[in-house]
Amino acid sequence: MPLRVAILGPGGVGGMLGALLAREGHAVTCLARPETAQHIQRHGLTLSSDRFGELSAAATGTTRLDQPADVCLVTPKATQLEAALERLPADVLGTAVLVPLLNGIDHLDLLRERYPAARTVAGAIQVAAHRTAPGTVRHDGSMAAVTLAPGAEQLADALRVTGLDVAVRPDERGLLWAKLSFLAPLALLTTSLAAPVGAVREQRSEDLRTVVSEVAAAARADGADPDPAATLALLDPLPAGMRSSMQRDAEAGRPTELEAIGGAVLRAAERHGVDVPVTRRIVEDLRARLR
Ligand SMILES: NC(=O)c1ccc[n+]([C@@H]2O[C@H](COP(=O)([O-])OP(=O)(O)OC[C@H]3O[C@@H](n4cnc5c(N)ncnc54)[C@H](OP(=O)(O)O)[C@@H]3O)[C@@H](O)[C@H]2O)c1
User: Where is the Ketopantoate reductase N-terminal domain (predicted)?
Assistant: First the structure.
């Protein structure tokens, strides 16, 4: 049965999932800034993907949710979340399923507080997608995997049908920290060195190992079951030229997700009395350097 899917912040992640879901006949409504909303209303969503091919699909573009949805995907960047939520009134969202796919962990509490009637289900996405123009997304490579906590079964089924890899994982903290354990060391060190991951492995290997183990300690104290050796094994074979999105944002002078990624690790460590000195030094240095 077609789902009514609202997408708040249809950029790289939201635009890609919206295009794939709309192609399967789901009713996709994008909640966006006026220019983007207008473009999507006129031209729909367009995806160019190594894995899914070239596709365009009709979607509704609007600046504010004004009719019920079954599911709402929350996909702005962390720095844009507060402003974007103005487009999602709690009384219209009602008891819908709310699935944030932002990196980080702190947004879940924010959403649950703001939308107490909704069913907020943790999610994470592994993909390399970027918005090239309003409503238009480029997806590079074949990686496209969504992990959801229980409670969003209809969405999980719908995403599976689009061809995405979809997993449901019972432990919410584990799900969120699995992504952050990999991302935080990668993002913090590439941004700190202003160099891709190959240079980090060569020049900051000690820091890389230490940050991986500090983040794992914070994750463990926060209720997850991290595996730092597995994280290092994932970081090892990454292409030497690979950069992180935090690094790209920093280089372009855009606001970064430093607080949602590095700040979240420090806050969790502090909450649980875990010492993370190297991660703290890097985050504080970046806080001083970036906006
Ligand atoms: N991209 C990836 O490959 C990837 C992979 C894994 C995780 N993530 C995570 O997913 C999240 C989203 O990343 P992204 O790369 O998709 O970001 P993005 O391409 O910048 O998309 C965010 C979208 O939010 C929209 N937006 C900004 N302010 C808004 C507002 N006030 N109201 C409504 N919409 C607003 C922007 O709209 P406009 O189009 O109008 O500018 C933009 O299209 C981040 O937490 C990121 O770390 C991304």
Answer: 5-150
